[in-house]
Amino acid sequence: MKLLKRKKVENKTDLEKVEERREEVLAQGRKFKYPLQYTKHRIVVNTVLIAFIIMAFVAVGGWLALYKFQMTDEILYRATTIIPVSVAEVDGEKVRFSDYLMLYRSSLSSIEQQAGKLGNDVDADYVRTKYKRAALDNAEQYAYAAKLARENDVTVTDEDVAVEFERHRQVGGIDRNEEGFLKILRDNFGLSKSEYERMLHLNLLRAKVMAKIDDEANATADQVEKILAENGGNLKGAYEKLGGKVTYEETGGLVDSRNIDGGRASEATKLEAGQQSGRFISINGDGYYFVKLIAKTNTEVNFVSIFVPFNKFDQLFAELKENGKISEAITLE
Description:
The chain is an alpha+beta fold. It has 12 helices and 8 strands. It folds into 3 domains: 53 residues; 141 residues, no CATH class; 95 residues, no CATH class. A hairpin with a 3-residue loop joins strand 6 and strand 7.
């Protein structure tokens, strides 16, 4: 039997010998392979755990900074433009934290440009809280406008924003170059072009929604147009006929064409004496204006105007507050 067994081994082919040797080598290699695989697995698991812990710390820290301590610094603001966190909810519509901080920071920058940096005393805290409240109210209105815009098929295009940007750049009839205008925005409000365009988008959307849903204001504006066509453009006569539905205002003489007055002075500079404008939405987006030019110079205008206010949006928003449909994630004392 031993002879037969030895003979069987001796009769192995070269291929079988190579395969046998290959298995021996692989068996030796497995001793090192599997411990290394286990080590790699541990490294991956530990890396994931560390990353998760870091992310958890960042998330908790960010939450505390935004919601508890209400920090408004540049880093947090930039983070909210990337991460879509909300500061409030209006009738189911999320209010973007980035919009709130953008509005607050630009307002605060403006007041500090005029009065100097705010300190840390009680009066300074009162001013900050006041501007935070105003910024949050505006951000909530913008969010509600976005909800109504979807429901009423109202949109604002990039072209709309570009046209409005040009209107602001040339307000008062002064054709500022874009670089100079952006410097004004940056120095006085701390805003970049994209941030200002975001503000214009929000304001245009709210204004369009206000105009779309306010049937009473639109009917009144139609009446104004009809009366002006019948009485030769007598704005005061239209006001007297419509009573409390509209307001009437006279400049009483020449005023600076750069006046910030809802866009009336700027619109008046485009007219000739005796001409009247058609209806146009105020820069503030709170109603329609009609303007008639009395006289003008290169830098001043004298005009009269009629204002048709938008009331429906404010009424609806007030009802949301009364019915508890606005919830805020921060507390402003």
